[in-house]
Design a protein that fits this description.
By secondary structure, the protein is of the alpha/beta class. 46% of the residues lie in helices and 15% in strands. The protein binds nicotinamide-adenine-dinucleotide and magnesium ion.
Length: 386
């Protein structure tokens, strides 16, 4: 029987890798919805090729373009926020959550509410509203499967294990584009330089977040929320080769590592075929040729975002939503050339300091409304600092 699948953020890096896998065995899948942003040409071409029920662009003004691109295909065209939520809520067995940013939260929740298994690339969902996402899944009897490579690695290392026997989780990090730059040069790093990842091909925003390690900061929180592991048991290790994706340490001292090529189709394919392992078109490692794997502790001066994430985990509540929003806004300003690379972490820290006296951060219930309230407050707070 074929499985009904939808892809939220189909035109992005994760979305395209997901389509690559699905298109290899189309008889196994029935594509329900594909969603995207401004690239309606790509969206329409994929929707046609996969025979999707509906294609949705997030932008109302692009509805006519999308309709024209889908003319005669039998694929429905829709646009805007409400249409995006409606597409996410269409009955499906498996939904890929691959929109970038907090914009992915509500569509992911809508997919869970209709009972779909949510393959979660959108780490911002867990950072901003982890308890809400996991409760929604429990209530609906739906499952969340991690797609972030580190979290997929941890998930795989835990198969058949008792979570109570876990002593620590080690997330590896490439160190990003500037890992070997003199610290003094970081202030002048350009957007183009920050957008060149040494090992992974990803969307621009996560690539820049890898250079600043805001990505790893989000992943620390993601680990806490997804696996329920205490923050002081989660470590970060710089691993320049990006071949070991994460390690889980057990109380007998054993470390289980997930090793593989830096290709997101590993993690996407695992979530797509779970609980089975299907053959995947990823490179097989020749460890003799690779010769050595290096590890080192992250330099705290180079990556201030990591300490910020620790503070956010200590505070809990809605501070993840504040942190993510400030980070997204600081990144917008960096990409637009309004601030320098190293200013991002300082601005995010100032926003968190200002918001630290706001009782809502720790006392308010985590709902979509409160997440967006804090999100807006945090973005506005960051803008006021410029
Ligand atoms: P991307 O920028 O390549 O693609 C983002 C997708 O979301 C596109 O389809 C875009 O049209 C859509 N989108 C953007 N803003 C939107 C909005 N406001 N409303 C609706 N749709 C919108 O991003 P990506 O690199 O594929 O990352 C997607 C998610 O997966 C992010 O949360 C990222 O952190 C996570 N992730 C990515 C990778 C990777 O290898 N790229 C690895 C791990 C985790
Ligand atoms: Mg990752």
């Amino acid at each position: 029987m074929s499985r009904r699948v939808s892809i939220l953020g189909a035109t992005g890096s994760i979305g395209q890798n997901t389509i690559d896998l699905i298109a290899r065995t189309p008889e196994r899948f029935e594509v329900v919805a594909l969603t995207g942003g401004r690239n309606v040409t790509r969206l329409a071409a994929d929707a046609r090729a996969l025979g999707a029920q509906v294609a949705v662009t997030a932008h109302d003004d692009l509805l006519d373009d999308l309709r024209a691109a889908l003319a005669g295909s039998g694929v429905e065209a829709a646009a805007g926020r409400a249409a995006l939520l409606e597409a996410a809520a269409r009955p499906a067995d498996w939904v890929m959550s691959a929109i970038v940013g907090v914009a992915g939260l509500a569509p992911g929740l809508a997919a869970l509410e209709q009972g779909a298994t949510l393959a979660l690339a959108n780490k911002e969902s867990l950072v901003t509203a982890g308890p809400l996402l996991m409760q929604t899944a429990r209530r609906a009897g739906a499952r969340v499967l991690p797609v972030d490579s580190e979290h997929s690695a941890v998930f795989q290392a835990l198969v058949g294990e008792d979570i109570a026997a876990v002593e620590r989780v080690i997330l590896t990090a490439s160190g990003g584009a500037f890992r070997d730059w003199p610290l003094a040069d970081l202030a002048h790093a350009t957007v183009e330089q920050a957008s060149a990842h040494p090992n992974w091909a990803m969307g621009q925003r996560i690539t820049i977040d890898s250079a600043s390690m805001f990505n790893k900061a989000l992943e620390l929180i993601e680990t806490r929320e997804f696996f329920g592991i205490d923050p002081d048991r989660i470590e970060v290790l710089v691993h320049p080769e990006s071949l070991v994706h994460a390690l889980v340490g057990f109380r007998d001292g054993a470390l289980m590592a997930h090793v593989g090529a830096p290709d997101m189709r590993h993690a996407i394919g695992y979530a797509l075929n779970w609980p089975d392992r299907a053959e995947l078109p990823v490179a097989r490692l020749d460890l003799a040729e690779i010769g050595q794997l290096r590890f080192r502790a992250p330099d705290v001066a180079r990556y201030p975002a990591l300490a910020l994430a620790r503070g956010v985990m200590d505070t809990g509540g809605l501070s993840g939503a504040a942190f993510n929003a400030a980070k997204e806004r600081a990144l917008d300003h960096f990409i637009a050339g309004r601030i320098g690379f190293t200013q991002m972490s300082g601005l995010v820290e100032q926003v968190l300091d200002t918001l630290s006296s706001d009782r809502r951060l720790t006392d308010a219930e985590i709902t979509l409304d409160t997440v967006f309230e804090i999100d807006h407050l945090s973005r506005a707070g960051l803008d006021r600092l410029l």
